[in-house]
Design goal:
Length: 389
């Protein structure tokens, strides 16, 4: 009776939590595409555009250690409401005050707000997901996030970059996210624990898990930022390079549910190992198949395998931590996105300048070689036993 009653509650909360962050993601997809275009139209140097983009990851990274205490004190739902309202105000301010002196601190603060939203949503989803279906649900979650984020860039050609229309659409999407947020039926005490929520303690227990997440975020930021450049310098047309990139992203979305299901039924560590191996093989193969039709399946397999590590890492986090410690772990994972955004693109750009465009897929392969080596040294132990001290 209890299990039967709990199931509709659990899945209702899952749908509401995913819908909340999906609505926010559409707005963020708009914003992250629109801001660089507007700065480029103002003839702002590329390095300043890149520095402005780095403000978001810096905000996410610096806010991470403080989010668990904030959420534990005020409640996840209240913090989520504030984060959504602040993000709406930030989008309004970007348009109302078109000045770099304003946009830099705004981008930093936006990183903090979005970091809080993703920390809370992932902690909720991991809490509501049952142990036997956690991998599949995280596969659905990451797919919905990617689709939502991609809607912004797809809609931008129809809205244009001038005037208030694109900003109002983004603000409206954020406003709509409040509706499913109100439907999340959860106590404010769900993540409150006087002894839990210690960010550094969770980091010390899960260094390999966080390194796995960082590996996936490095891949994601480098792949999206530099694959088109890799294709162009390898002799592909802009259209072909863009379509192959899109195929990789869409193919990845289609397979994450199956990968999550495999991790539920077989072995989470086993899925990570084989995903890393497949990523390494396909990254190296990319150099040799770039002028062949084989580039299409190669990129789809590569993107799917690489991002599978992130999906399984989220499931492992939910398997291990509960309550306030789960929020701390989710905040640490959000911080890893900050690390990926800060480190990945500059590293790849420097490698391409120094060694040529083929260094891009080789660098991606190297990330996953390091992950496999770390897994071997830790004997597949993603989470350390809690310390008695």
């Amino acid at each position: 009776m209890t299990a039967t009653a709990a199931t509709p509650w659990r899945y209702g909360n899952l749908v509401a939590a995913i819908a909340t962050i999906a609505s926010c993601d559409i707005a963020l997809g708009f914003t992250f595409q629109l801001l660089p275009i507007l700065m480029e139209m103002q003839r702002i140097p590329a390095w300043i555009i890149g520095l402005n983009a780095a403000m978001g990851p810096i905000g996410i990274l610096l806010a991470g250690p403080f989010l668990p205490q904030l959420i534990s004190r005020f409640g996840a739902k209240r913090v989520a409401y504030v984060a959504v309202l602040f993000t709406m105000a930030a989008l309004f301010a970007f348009k109302a005050y078109p000045s770099l002196y304003i946009w830099f601190p705004l981008r930093f603060a936006l990183g903090i707000a979005t970091g809080a939203l993703f920390t809370i949503s992932e902690a909720w989803i991991l809490t509501f997901a049952g142990p036997g279906s956690r991998g599949r649900i995280m596969g659905v979650y990451t797919s919905v996030m990617a689709i939502s984020f991609s809607l912004g860039p797809f809609m931008l050609p129809f809205t244009g970059t001038e005037g208030w229309l694109p900003w109002l659409i983004g603000i409206s999407c954020l406003g709509l996210s409040i509706l499913p947020l109100t439907l999340v039926n959860v106590s404010n005490d769900i993540f409150h624990d006087e002894k839990g929520g210690n960010f550094l303690r969770v980091v010390k227990r899960a260094p390999l898990l966080l390194f796995a997440v960082c590996t996936a975020t490095l891949f994601d930021t480098v792949f999206i930022s530099f694959f088109t450049i890799f294709g162009l310098r390898s002799g592909l047309t802009l259209q072909t390079a863009s379509w192959v990139l899109g195929a990789g992203i869409l193919g990845n979305l289609g397979f994450q549910f199956l990968i999550g299901a495999l991790s539920d039924r077989w072995s989470r560590v086993g899925v990570v190992i084989w995903s890393a191996v497949l990523t390494i093989i396909t990254c190296v193969a990319l150099i040799f198949v770039v002028h062949s039709w084989l580039i299409w399946p190669t990129v789809i397999i590569m993107a799917t395998a690489a991002f599978a590590v992130y999906v399984v890492a989220l499931a492992i986090l939910g398997d291990t931590f509960k309550g306030a410690d789960l929020v701390a772990g989710s905040a640490a994972i959000s911080a890893m996105w900050g690390v990926g955004g800060l480190v990945g693109p500059p590293m790849a750009g420097a490698a391409i300048d120094a060694f040529g465009v083929n260094s891009m897929p080789l660098l991606l392969a190297a990330f996953y070689v390091m992950l496999l080596v770390s897994l071997a040294l830790s004997r597949g132990q993603f989470i350390r036993a809690p310390s008695n001290g």
